[in-house]
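Moderator note: this is an archived Q&A kept for reference. The question asked for a predicted structure of one protein chain; the sequence and the answer are reproduced below.
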Amino acid sequence: MTEQYDLAVIGGGPVGAALALEAMRRRLRVLVLEARQAESRSTDNRPMALSYGSRLILEHVGVWEQLSPVTPIRRIHVSQRGGFGRTEMTAAAARLPALGYMVDYTGLVACLDAALERTSATVTRGARVMSIAHDPASARIEFQREGEVRDAIASVVALADGGATGLDVGIRRRDYDQVAITARVSTARAHEHTAFERFTAEGPIALLPFDRTYALVWTLAPGRGESLCSAPSSAFLAALHTVFGERVGAFLDVSERHLHRLTLRVSERATIGRMALVGNASQSLHPVAGQGFNLGLRDAWELAAEIARCDAASPDVLSAYGRRRRIDRAAGVAFTHGLVNIFSNENAALRAMRGLGLTAIDCLPAAKDLLVRRMVFGARL
């Protein structure tokens, strides 16, 4: 007999697992289909930036207290190389305990997996989705596991696989012609819970406090990025010091470096038939300002809320989700894409306008507060 569920989540990564946990908390019947086998835990040890709003979601689903290490971000300093103007945002001014937090990606995945295993959700690992057929009130999912073809019926299907299944969801792509080098760097000065975002002609540099070091995300032109990623540590640190400046003192050491091609991927719609797209399956953003994962968690939160608010089989549940996510999703894409276009160039007139903009934000508490609220909690109806 084919099993029936209120919600089937395709993809058990952080966004998919958080969605399943919140749906279970709201007493929905949940199926999770995950391509990873149980023993294939993530070994991605990169730090991840979470907003204070994401902390609230992770508290609701019961995993925040298990995360370690967690490094609060209490101050963000934004500047541009080769031009005047800067702005600072603080948790104290925003009346928040922190603007955000740095956590270990692998640790986050492990905590979410463990929490999911403690629920009564049906979690099927090693599952490869083959097709999804929609009717007005449900969808039939055909998947393969260990060579056996199976199926399940769900009132709502959440695609949270980051595009791994290859399902056609109408993705629009924009190659930024940039790469990002990620690593951890140690510096002469302690971070004091301060994050830096410094814009250069090639792209932004982010230094994010993590444990006793900084997590580095350095955006560059592809050729220069490839060269620096393989350069000796001393040459890499010297180049970083040249473009970043003296705010953290000398750069002392760098961990293993990783190179990532930067592309904007946005689905044309947030819903298709009985399927809702969440996280990177819906939008994959430039890493500037660290918005991508936080936007995905808000997708998960809103979808679980809509399914619980309406009957899961209602024809209105997915249209309501699409409406609720439209503004936040569009604002997140426009914000990150706009920052890249405005700041990643040497245009003198734009440099002066950027400086004036940064100075104006720093001098106008109401504008700064609006910016912080949008970054922390997203754009809301």
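Archived answer notes: The chain has a mean pLDDT of 93.
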